[in-house]
Protein: PhnA domain-containing protein
Organism: Paenimyroides ceti
Amino acid sequence: MKTEEKLKTRSGNQCELCESKSGLSVYDVPPTASNLADREIYICTTCLSQIEKKEAPDANHWQCLSTAMWSEVPAVQVVSWRMLNRFRNESWAADLLDMMYLDDENLEWAKQTGDHEGDGSIDLHKDCNGNILVGGDTVTLIKDLDVKGSTINAKIGTAVRNIRLVHDNTEQIEGKVDGQLLVILTKFVKKQ
């Protein structure tokens, strides 16, 4: 039986974290080798995008961890512990963390991503108005920009289509202006 089929059966064909029944997929709980059912969980797209820090975390969505954390599946326990740590400054999550128990092996696995360190906040690419930018968006320049090392002057109101996010810097995006690929600061763009 394929791994996905085993996970569908184990989860009752619903998200193993929030019990959603739509947009489900297999998630390899890092760090792990793929195709190990005990290191994979079956989750929805909302949980996946927030776990992978592609979307701002929604505390209301994660109230489901009060149930998921008691799962007998170690991978579900590990992800529950990691997500609770992201919200540990909120009383509900701190209370759940105080009640939760992981054996030494699973606790070591849970700590490997470092979610228990720092303040749990994530940085996202945002435009000048605070709107979250994603790859493929179209943005408009809100200021005339001189391009260093070029004669191009990108004018206010210029549309930059199909942007790419600079993964190691949330204050920068890449996009083409007049056929030339430029790095643009997010504070100078507005999402369309």
Q: What stands out?
A: The beta strands are 24-28, 40-44, 139-141, 145-146, 153-154, 159-160, 164-165, 172-177, 180-185, 189-191.
